[in-house]
């Protein structure tokens, strides 16, 4: 009986939610989840656009980004950084993970993909699947390190709790039926500038121009004096860095990381990239947000168990009527 | 030369088991355990294996002329981070083929038992589970219409469990919820055999005793978060959310998302979450004082008699600190092995059939879990259950629950 008293004293009187409130709340959740998916989807779509490879290792790369972030949180004692320190902690994590994932993605390209350029596409694909397995197992090993944040490392495969560095306070006030937290806002604040920056980079810089040229025709680009391998390397670097940002946002938003998270998130992101039109940057963003919204609405109004069927049902329908995706340009025949 | 011939003869005996029977130079009885070693259930498994080892060490690894050999097998895979049907099937087939194996201790997950039971049944091999609690594995009429017949192709009973089944646990969980004043409940399950089964029992009994069920849903255990579901639940405004499922299937993430959405103060889960990994995955602040965990037995520090002796011996052997306790299932691992070892001397023939017969005749056994028997289905007659909550990031015993 002691227990129920404790529970009662803790509970805040629940605010009644009307149907409009519920719908708004689901849309907010959907957009936040969708933005994270979109950021990862960009990594898939950029690589596909330039070398026509579905980089299966990309989702697992994000897993490692999250593990790095949790390691830093533990090693630097970031949970105790209050006030402005909290902001500093989040910025440190974002930058470290971005640098780490960018560098790792570049290395993966250098070691596992570049030697296979010009070889059959299937070899490249198998190499990507291999990299994915290697990264998953690194994450499994990493989770077993004897650190307090990893539960002492006794249970390498267990889901890890990621401390709430970002406040969960309702920005609309505790009385409001709809909850918009700093976490939801954080996702938007970080993701939107990154997307704008990327668009600018691809549209208006020399590197962006070179990337577009290589995507269109690598041989012609090389003949025009573009260092194709360098451009492809940069693409992996940028795609990986965005994945790094996404991994930290994911960890701070969901507060749980596990060595398997990359598989599911990667699958969602890949689906988003295809839905939006693979190879198209705005397509990846639109695809990500659509999938986030569909997931939220299906969880909310149909039933959680049907969500995957609904998402893939929509994907199939879209592809039947628009084979190149929502925003995809008419593509050449690609495998 | 003579030596070589002898060696060849021995080899011939070794590869023709039919000839070798009864003429083995060394009399070995082998026990296999098949429990999840990879994944977050490993902490539980370690303590169960420790319990098994403790029971074997208490008889110094020998019964009469027989040496007890124990092999600890993993039924999980890194790809799943959880029990894996393919690995469980491999383990069962391996055990069935090895003539020296006389008992198979496992499984932890009910879904895994479903796979190994028919294989071992055909092999006439005794199986004792310390943790699989899905009722349909043993009890006619409590699961699907064809259960448990499909698990017993030979018609004989070879599966026993030392832990009370979920038809009791789900029942007492609903009773406990009512005691706490819960009027409206929202029920989730992980769509696995165990989780869905116990959620069904909970739902049925909740309705019988007048708790309103606002919704019932199966979740996608690998989803990155359950925020949309939490919103839906918040809008329905239940007094309690019941989740039939395990730590490995996102129990922690659900607790976290419900707490974040400020959806409900009470979150009840079954024994599949009665492990430290659940609190670690959820984050203590999300479950302190709000999570309620039912468990098909008593926590180690509440055991009496033989159970208290077990706890003392366990803490000594495995160097536990004063304030550390074995995880909930350690005593079940111990009891599963102990009841087997105590039955072996009574077996008329020290082979699979003889030992299976002796174990099935266990009556009024005075063990670490009290005095109990195996009933006609292979279930324990024990019905003691406990209700627990979380306080300061540790499980805290609340009360004994019973039918």
Which properties best describe this structure?
heterodimer; A: mainly alpha; 12 helices; 2 strands; 69% helix; 1% strand; disordered N terminus; B: Rossmann fold; Rossmann fold; 7-stranded mixed β-sheet; 6-stranded mixed β-sheet; 39% helix; 21% strand
Number of helices of chain B: 14
CATH structural architecture of chain A: Orthogonal Bundle
CATH topology of the largest domain in chain B: Rossmann fold
Low-confidence runs of at least 5 consecutive residues of chain B = 9-20
Q: Outline the low-pLDDT stretches of chain A.
A: 1-13
Judged by helices, strands and strand pairing, the structural class of chain B is: alpha/beta
Number of helices of chain A: 12
Top-tier CATH class of the largest domain in chain B: Alpha Beta
Could you tell me the radius of gyration of chain B in angstroms? 22 Å
Mean pLDDT reading of chain A? 88
CATH class of chain A: Mainly Alpha
- State the fourth-level CATH superfamily of the largest domain in chain B: Response regulator
Biggest sheet layout of chain A: 2 strands, antiparallel
Q: What Rg of chain A, in angstroms, do the CA atoms define?
A: 21 Å
């Amino acid at each position: 009986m002691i227990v129920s008293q404790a529970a009662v004293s803790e509970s805040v009187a629940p605010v009644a939610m009307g149907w409009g409130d519920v719908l708004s709340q689901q849309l907010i959740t959907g957009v936040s989840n969708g933005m994270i998916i979109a950021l990862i989807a960009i990594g898939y779509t950029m690589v596909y656009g330039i070398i026509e490879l579905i980089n299966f290792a990309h989702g697992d790369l994000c897993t490692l980004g999250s593990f790095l972030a949790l390691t830093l949180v533990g090693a630097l004692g970031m949970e105790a950084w209050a006030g402005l320190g909290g902001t500093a902690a989040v910025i440190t994590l974002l930058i470290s993970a971005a640098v780490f994932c960018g560098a790792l993605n570049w290395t993966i390209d250098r070691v596992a993909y570049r030697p296979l350029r010009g070889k059959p596409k299937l070899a490249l694909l198998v190499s990507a699947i291999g990299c994915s397995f290697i990264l998953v197992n690194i994450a499994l090993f990493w989770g077993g390190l004897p650190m307090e944040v990893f539960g002492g490392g006794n249970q390498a495969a267990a889901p890890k709790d990621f401390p709430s560095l970002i406040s969960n306070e309702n920005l609309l006030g505790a009385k409001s039926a709809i909850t918009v937290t700093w976490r939801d806002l954080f996702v938007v604040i970080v993701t939107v500038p990154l997307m704008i920056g990327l668009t600018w980079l691809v549209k208006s810089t020399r590197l962006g121009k070179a990337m577009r040229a290589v995507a269109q025709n690598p041989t012609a680009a090389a003949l025009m004096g573009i260092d194709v391998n360098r451009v492809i390397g940069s693409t992996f670097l940028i795609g990986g860095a965005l994945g790094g940002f996404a991994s930290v946002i994911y960890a701070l938003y969901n507060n749980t990381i596990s060595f398997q998270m990359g598989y599911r998130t990667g699958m969602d992101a890949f689906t988003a990239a295809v839905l939006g039109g693979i190879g198209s940057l705005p397509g990846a963003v639109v695809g990500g947000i659509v999938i986030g919204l569909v997931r939220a609405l299906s969880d909310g109004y149909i039933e959680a168990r049907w969500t995957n069927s609904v998402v893939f049902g929509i994907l199939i329908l879209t592809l039947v009527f628009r084979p190149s995706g929502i925003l995809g340009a008419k593509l050449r025949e690609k495998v | 030369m003579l030596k070589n011939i002898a060696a060849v003869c021995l080899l011939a005996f070794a590869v023709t088991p039919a000839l070798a029977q009864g003429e083995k130079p060394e009399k070995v009885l082998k026990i296999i355990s098949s429990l999840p070693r990879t994944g977050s259930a490993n902490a539980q498994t370690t303590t169960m294996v420790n319990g098994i080892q403790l029971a074997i060490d208490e008889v110094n690894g020998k019964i009469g002329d027989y040496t007890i050999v124990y092999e600890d097998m993993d039924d999980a895979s890194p790809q799943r981070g959880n029990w894996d049907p393919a690995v469980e099937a491999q383990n069962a087939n391996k055990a069935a083929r090895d003539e020296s194996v006389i008992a198979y201790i496992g499984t932890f997950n009910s879904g895994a038992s479903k796979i190994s039971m028919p294989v071992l049944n055909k092999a006439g091999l005794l199986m004792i589970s310390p943790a699989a609690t899905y009722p349909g594995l043993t009890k006619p009429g409590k699961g699907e219409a064809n259960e448990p017949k499909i698990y017993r192709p030979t018609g004989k009973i070879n599966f026993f469990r030392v832990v009370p089944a979920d038809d009791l646990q789900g029942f007492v969980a609903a009773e406990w919820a009512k005691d706490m004043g819960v009027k409206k409940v929202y029920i989730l399950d992980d769509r696995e055999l165990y989780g869905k089964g116990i959620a069904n029992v909970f739902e049925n009994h909740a309705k019988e005793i007048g708790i309103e069920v606002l919704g019932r849903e199966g979740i996608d255990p690998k989803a990155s978060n359950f925020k949309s579901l939490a919103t839906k639940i918040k809008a329905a405004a239940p007094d309690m959310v019941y989740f039939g499922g395990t730590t490995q299937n996102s129990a922690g993430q659900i607790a976290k998302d419900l707490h974040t959405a400020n959806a409900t103060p009470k979150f009840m889960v079954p024994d599949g979450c009665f492990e430290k990994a659940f609190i670690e995955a959820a984050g203590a602040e999300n479950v302190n004082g709000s999570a309620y965990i039912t468990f098909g037995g008593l926590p180690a520090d509440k055991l009496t008699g033989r159970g208290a002796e077990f706890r003392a011996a366990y803490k000594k052997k495995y160097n536990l600190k004063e304030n550390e306790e074995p995880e909930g299932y350690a005593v079940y691992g111990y009891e599963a092995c102990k009841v087997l070892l105590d039955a072996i001397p009574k077996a008329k023939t020290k082979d699979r059939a003889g030992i299976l017969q002796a174990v099935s005749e266990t009556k009024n056994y005075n063990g670490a879990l009290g005095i109990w028997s195996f009933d006609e289905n292979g279930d324990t007659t024990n019905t003691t259950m406990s209700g627990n909550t979380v306080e300061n990031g540790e499980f805290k015993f609340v009360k004994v629950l019973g039918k």
